[in-house]
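>> received
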Amino acid sequence: MKKIILGVLFLVLLAVNVYAHKISVFAYVEGNAIKGEVYFNDGSPAKGTRVTLCPVGEEKILAETKTNQEGSFELPLPKGLSQVKIIAWAEMGHRAEMKLSLKGTTEEPPSQETVSTQPQTPQAIPASTINEAELRKIVREEVKKEISPFYQMLNELARKLDKPSLAEIFGGIGYIFGLFGLWALLQARKNK
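>> returned
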């Protein structure tokens, strides 16, 4: 019986140790690039980690890079996609994945037909053509567009926090074994 309990305790401790080396990936769009960082569960940077960019639902690699000494990376912004998947591949099979929405992030350059070679003089817009309500609406839409990736990440984080983590599950199992051990000790003393 002691061997079984020690074996189960060893497996629980081993599983908790494996969970401690979990990696996470965080990415965002800046300009014409996807920038981000990869880090371990304790917050330390995952140096030299392979990072790939794929369309959501596919395993086709669009771009690939490695993280620098700070765990940061940069990938080119793909054209024609509304959502991508960033996958970080660390040593010993550790993998982290993040979906990133690209809606509203790419601005197409003007076509050759609309580009004028003559200098244009800026035209002033009369203040009476736009009222305060319209200006507020425009600002609200632009701010919403810029912070939507943060809302997505917060929602994803909230979903993950609602679920019990692997460490919490094994911690609960550990408490059960501890209570069982205390009960067995009390029973052994009682039977003496």
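>> The beta strands are 23-30, 33-40, 50-55, 63-66, 72-76, 83-89, 95-101.
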